[in-house]
Design a protein that fits this description.
This protein has about 210 residues and is of the alpha/beta class. The protein has helices at about 15-25, 40-50, 70-80, 95-105, 120-130, 135-150, 155-165, 170-175, 180-195, 200-205; strands at about 5-10, 30-35, 60, 85-90, 110-115, 135. It is built from ten helices and six strands. A six-stranded parallel sheet has the order 2-1-3-4-5-6, sandwiched between helices.
């Protein structure tokens, strides 16, 4: 039986970084790039075309922050819903446990920071391609501590915290969860108390950077 090529697609709004990562992967492994883009719109179009052609990538490498906004979460959720067979790796400058957990809950199979070695990115790709999850080793301890903290939050408090870490305003959180702004403020006060922080900036700095 002929061996199937391992394929990937990369999306990042920094063109030089995207091109350099793509070239390095292909020159140091047997992975083949089937496409890349700098916008979500282009990626959606490419995936729709690739699905029609029967050539969806095995792995999608995705940044979280696009043009200053953490829109990568919504992008991953949509891609995961439309193409559940595509494995997703977050490759991001953000390395706080809250961001890692939010990414995994949004459909990511792997998470690796851009300060990791290039070889570790390849390990991540091979690991999730084999059906396992992968979180960069130095992030795993932070993730365990974060999950223990989150266990002290109610389901609604956890959702509010997730949205705060994604830089949503109180008004946006209220609209997203269909609750009153005052309720959002109350939830955030409880979150501050349980996490031991004093304000929104400290919460984001500690758990969302």
């Amino acid at each position: 039986m002929e061996k199937k090529n391992k394929t990937f697609y990369i999306i990042d709004d920094h063109e030089m970084l995207r091109g350099g990562t793509k070239s390095w992967i292909m020159s140091h492994s047997d992975w083949i790039c089937v496409g890349d883009s700098g916008t979500h719109e282009q990626a959606y179009s490419d995936f729709e075309r690739m699905e029609k052609d029967g050539g969806l990538p095995d792995v999608l490498i995705c940044d979280l922050n696009f043009y200053g906004e953490n829109t990568g979460f919504e992008f991953m959720e949509k891609i995961h819903g439309l193409y559940p067979g595509v494995k997703i790796i977050v490759y991001s400058m953000f390395f706080a446990a809250g961001m890692v957990q939010n990414a995994m809950e949004s459909g990511a199979n792997g998470y690796i920071s851009k300060n990791a070695s290039s070889e570790e990115l390849l390990v991540c790709m091979d690991t999730i391609h084999s059906g396992e999850e992968f979180v960069q080793e130095e992030l795993q301890t932070k993730l365990i501590k974060y999950n223990k903290l989150v266990d002290a939050l109610t389901k609604r408090e956890k959702k509010v915290m997730d949205l705060v870490l994604q830089r949503y305003s109180n008004d946006e959180i209220a609209n997203q969860l269909n609750i009153k702004k005052r309720a959002v403020e109350n939830y955030i006060s409880i979150i501050y108390e349980k996490t031991g922080v004093n304000d929104r900036g400290e919460l984001v700095l500690k758990y969302g950077q």
